[in-house]
Amino acid sequence: MQPEALVALFDRQAPGYDRQWAGMSAIRDCMFLLLEPLLAGLPDDARVLCVGVGTGQELVHLARIRPGWHFVAVDPSGAMIEACRARAQDEGFAGRCRFHHGFLDALPGEAPFDAATCFLVSQFLVDRPARVALFADIAARLQPGGLLASSDLAAETTSPGYAVLLPAWLRMMAMADVTPDAIRRSREAYQRDVGVLPPAEVTAILHDGGFEQCVQFFQAGLIHAWVSRSRA
Fold it and tell me: What does the DSSP assignment read for the chain?
């Protein structure tokens, strides 16, 4: 899917996005639980870059647990970034945030960040060099040794196991009250518009993008998450 079409899709989905996926929030919450100790060593006044922040779920979680952190939230969807801004205002931490409507490469340069998040974003770049370039841009904006927490859909799609896992994943979505239309779109997207790669290949892309110590710390169904460090 071309970037413009992807942005338009998320603009349309923004008003009901959190409601649509609410039934699968346990996966996100478990990932966040495991993420907290991995970020525990960051400074009390850390600056965190949130790439593809969407409606701001990770932003809210991190702002609640670390009241001294400041954030730059980036998303190319205007509707998503406005939903994120509204959520930050409702939660009372908007003063610790800056919101950038646009792609990461258009974000003005500034002092390096201590950490970054990039959840379920790079999978939409089906061209490998573009995916590497995204992570390289994030790495360039981090302190040497800065942390990146990232997640993507990942699987060995040619393996017999995927023929078991994918239908189970789609059934779970149905059990979580995701609409049939959204499930149909997801199944079609996995074949055409989402780069569902083997976990080892996603790790290799992170490495090629300038990260080391890339450790997978979470998996739930097709969702895998990594914590990595930018090279010194």
Answer: --HHHHHHHHHHHGGGHHHHTGGGHHHHHHHHHHHHHHTTTS-TT-EEEEET-TT-HHHHHHHHH-TT-EEEEEES-HHHHHHHHHHHHHHT-GGGEEEEES-GGGSPP-SPEEEEEEES-GGG--SHHHHHHHHHHHHHTEEEEEEEEEEEEB--TTSHHHHHHHHHHHHHHHHTT--HHHHHHHHHHHHHTS--B-HHHHHHHHHHTTEEEEEEEEEETTEEEEEEEE--
pTM of the model: 0.94
Instruction: Indicate the class that CATH gives domain 3-155+195-230.
Output: alpha beta
Inform me whether the pLDDT recorded for 217 exceeds 90. Answer: yes
Instruction: State the pLDDT at residue 16.
Output: 87
